[in-house]
Amino acid sequence: MALVELKVGMHCQECIKAIKKAIKKIEDIETYRVDAELNKITVTGNVTAEEVVKVLQKIGKTATSWNEEENSVLNGKGEHREFEG
Q: What are the residue boundaries of the HMA domain, all occurrences included (predicted)?
């Protein structure tokens, strides 16, 4: 069973509801937790970070790996894009 932790911007209750609804549709998840204070999503099950990111992108959310550097963003293809700021 995999543990996926992502940082996702959540600004209001509507964002949180949309995120929860999208995550619930992912096949093979065991549990999920949405922490609005930390902007953190934790998903467990037979799922990859890329699968979760792809679902979030469909609702207009960008997700970064919780354990990666702040400027590293998963692009939904299992690759990282580096942003210069």
A: 1-64
DSSP state, residue 3:
E
Q: Roughly what angle, to the nearest 10 degrees, separates helices 13-24 and 49-58?
A: 130
pLDDT tens-digit readout, 17-52: 999 999 999 999 999 999 999 999 999 999 999 999
Please give the pLDDT value at position 68. Answer: 66
Provide the pairing of β-strand 40-45 with 2-8. antiparallel
Closest CA to 52 of 9, 6, 14, 15: 6
Hey, where are the domains in the chain?
2-82
Instruction: Please give the Cα distance from 36 to 13 (Å, whole number).
Output: 9
